[in-house]
Amino acid sequence: MSASSNVVDMSQATDAAGGGAVAQRKRTGALTETIRSALLDGNLGKGRINEVHLANTLGVSRTPVRAALQMLTGEGLLDHAPNRGFAVRSFSLDEIGDAFEVRALNEGLACRLAAERGLTLAQGDTIREVLGRGDRLLAGHVDLVECRRGYAEVNTQFHATLLEAAGSRLIVDVLKLCNRVPQTTTHNVMAFNLDDVRQRHAEHHAIYKAVALREPQSAQAQMREHILHVKNSLVRSALAERIASARAGE
Known about the structure:
250 residues; 3-stranded antiparallel beta sheet; 9 helices; 3 strands; 4% strand; globular
């Protein structure tokens, strides 16, 4: 076999390995998303996570589950201790409320900057597309599980595009700190009820209109109010859950 054919064979092997690595990252990403959604919905309970049980429930081995749990630990959703494994991280209502307040101030500022600087054609197209997708997801009879997954993406993309339009690295860094309290992330959209989500989506339409019309003060005020509405919905949900748990324990 010639040297050149060896090079070709090595190149093909490298390409195959690279393709396998990409596929593995996609599988890990999908698994991480599934576990993240379960955590945000409270379906994994509290305290220590049984990795074997979780892997069996998801129909996968422990290795990809552990990789996903490590990623979620990095996001702040989980705690990890040597010899004790992973545990669901808990946050007080005060911590959650503080993170929402900081997020409201910073995303409001991001909207003001986006309105002042203007959206690019691509950014405008993206926002209109995600608003339309949200309209379709929330129309008529809704399958809550499918809607939650789809609208989480819509919500995240809407806020991310406005943040991109603001062009402020400082705001991005501050919001990353807020996201260490996972209940405040844009991905968490169905901790309350469907009517709440429909109202928040209507607010998205109004925020986009203010930004597109280059009305910075209106855009800032509407985004800040929007985030605080989300905060109030989540706090109501958390309090109702605590009351229900207390009554169940009587």
